[in-house]
Amino acid sequence: MKPFASTLLIPTGQLQPHSQHVTRRLSSMRGQYADLAAFERMLEQGDPLVYEVFENQVPSRPGELAHGTSVVHPGRVGDEYFMTKGHFHAVPDTAEVYHCLSGQGFMVLETAEGEWAAEEFVPGRIVYVPPFWAHRSVNAGDTDLVLFFAYPGNAGHDYRTIEERGFRKRLVEKNGAPTVVDNPHWGGGA
Fold first, then answer.
1. Helix/strand/coil percentages in the chain, nearest 5
2. Which residue in 101, 124, 172, 190 could disulfide with 185, CB within 3.0 to 4.6 Å?
3. What is the pTM of this model?
4. pLDDT tens for residues 101-153?
5. CB under 8 Å to 47, separation ≥6 — which residues?
6. Contact (Cβ atoms closer than 8 angstroms) between residue 137 and residue 50
């Protein structure tokens, strides 16, 4: 691999150039939101874009550093904010760093053993995701939540575990403020 450079376009969060652009629409988030009726109603009205990832991929081996941006768009399904699918790393003892460039939200994190945390994102805030922690970005604001991330090139992504059991905690709007609540469907999907 040779050195390369990209430009981060603010405020859109696009990385130019990038080797991968992933888009996740509401339809790809089936089972992730607690309010199934609200999910189906929203899907009937269209299939909104929930989030995007612009990434520069690198070889999948130790020593490489994958990086990119995620842009979580504003919106809610019922009272639950738009969010990323969330994942563990396929190589579980690898970490990740997120830097909030714009917007506001939270990183919801948990371990397989039951520890959890919700770290706030505001511009300039950096959140460290330790090894063995699943993580999901949640937009709790009115504008795009734009995050820069970096992780080991060999880390990989385990989305399946989260798709099957969800996260223990959810971030919802309650009385006009983001609030962490228990996930009533945890363990068996929403």
1. 10, 45, 45
2. 190
3. 0.94
4. 999 999 999 999 999 999 999 999 999 999 999 999 999 999 999 999 999 99
5. 25, 26, 27
6. no
